[in-house]
Protein 1
Amino acid sequence: MIYAPPITTLTESHLAINACLAPVASMHGLAVTTVEGIGSIKTGLHPVQKRIAEAHGSQCGFCTPGIVMSMYALLRNLPKPTMKDMEIAFQGNFSKSQVCSH
């Protein structure tokens, strides 16, 4: 997730991005938060991470960090999202486990 302060945008925003596709130079001046940065077993899980773990929501582990960060960014921007907000937030996430075998 990246945080763009009001200096670089008209309003403060938190955006989930595909880290594999974002050139590192495009992150200049932005705060970058990874799934490890929002919580861990040692420091305590973020509520989004905890809910996925408690509900056995993890698949193979490739898609879960992206899903966590999409929800985290959504909740940073909209603390009470609608179902439509969630559908839009998760449009870029898919599970490789569901489309092919490993």
Protein 2
Amino acid sequence: MKSPKRKILLFAAAVLLLPAMVLMASDPVGVYCVVDRVVLEPNETSPQRIQIWGTFAVWEGQPFTGSMQYSKPQRGYLYYRITPGNDGKIERAEWADLKAVAGTGQGIAFGSRYKPAGRIRPATEKPVEPDLYPTGTGISKVGYYQENMTRVIGEIKKAK
């Protein structure tokens, strides 16, 4: 008799928790932005660092709460480097995608809300001490995480 009750309780718990898990996983994005230009350092053939110039909104919510809180749009640049100890293939592939979309006005998303997004630097600040590039879900164009993305990219475009 204990076994059927346990199964029913587990099933009920799963049914109640599944929507919350889907909500949390529905927008794992760390950075929304419209990219104006990209600077690869020290060169474009084998970059170790990237400057991403544009307007950004970074996730400010608390992990695993279902929060959809992003910062107000800010102009400036993000400065990243490849994480030490890896081959940089993922970073370089994403950086090529960022370079391809730069200057088009296309709203995009990248990074992960579960990793530090880096600091939005003012245009007047010299690029020193790059943050680690936050790999996550790859580069997504507006439409994939439709609800948040449309809203946040709309705010970014108004702020430009």
Protein 3
Amino acid sequence: MNILHDELKHDLVARGFSRRNFGRIAAMITAGATLPFYNESALAQLSKVNAPPDAVLLNANENPLGPCKEAREAAAKMIDQGGRYRYAETDRVQLLLARQEGVKTNSVRIYAGSSAPLHQAVLAFTGPKRPLVMADPGYEAALAPPLSLAPKPSVSR
């Protein structure tokens, strides 16, 4: 399977990506992700506000209803599988989503959270000729140092 067709390869080279500097770029991104001020828990603290205990924090993507009955039952069944890598389950979810959406299976990716795919989307779809345009408030991590390979975003307030 050829993931990078000629057009994608040309685009990566045009944006400054080459085999020579790929290792440096990967190392920088990896190092940046380990810094204490730039990780999931650090970013989650940005949503901390002084609010009444029963307040719904929309800025933290809270769901005041909690999981539905079927989701709670499925989660309870998975307790017995704790500590196991259930790769087949991930594959089943990927296949199901692809079928439901009418897309190819390799067009669906399953992630444990949104940070990784959002970081990858910023890197994949921005460049000197394709700047990131975002609202404020928006996706804060797009402005973080490890993603400085992309051009400075245009922030609309």
Protein 4
Amino acid sequence: MKRFTIAAAFLLLVAVSRDAAAQGFISPFLGTTLSSPSDAGSHTKPGYGVAFGALGKVIGGETEIAYFPELLDNSANAIAKNKIVTFSGNTLIGPTVGRVKPYVGLGAGNLHLNVTSLSNVVLPSADFSKNYFTFNVGGGVIGFFTNHLGARGDLRYTRAFGIKIEDLATTGLSLDKFNFWRATFGLAVKF
């Protein structure tokens, strides 16, 4: 599944960036989650990542890698630590107006979830680590201050598929779905 996700993201990026006016970009970012997949607690730690791709006059594409060191509230969910790494290929659709590009983005990819239970000291097998297929949708804006340097703001909803309650039983979590909103802000460099 991971190979398929990587191949699909690459093909999506190549397919949508064939616009004659397409320009490459890279966008490192910082972000935070606005909601938690768990009903218990809402504390999360900021995450970071990088997106790179091509922007056309209307359609663009990107590949994004992001890391969030605490998506689930550790103390409220009685877990020692948790982290997620996401990898996705996204299509960006929106007009370019001067140096500004508002867009709607949608994509698919992989979410790697790693949870360490508090009982890990007693039961070393209480760790949980698994990959899930994800879908994301959202929007944002990229504005350039110069021909090559600008800023980007983005809001996304991410949903992971295939989460099973019994998979998380050893960690003490009881999630039947895994979805969250996140907001990011970062630099945008066009080349």
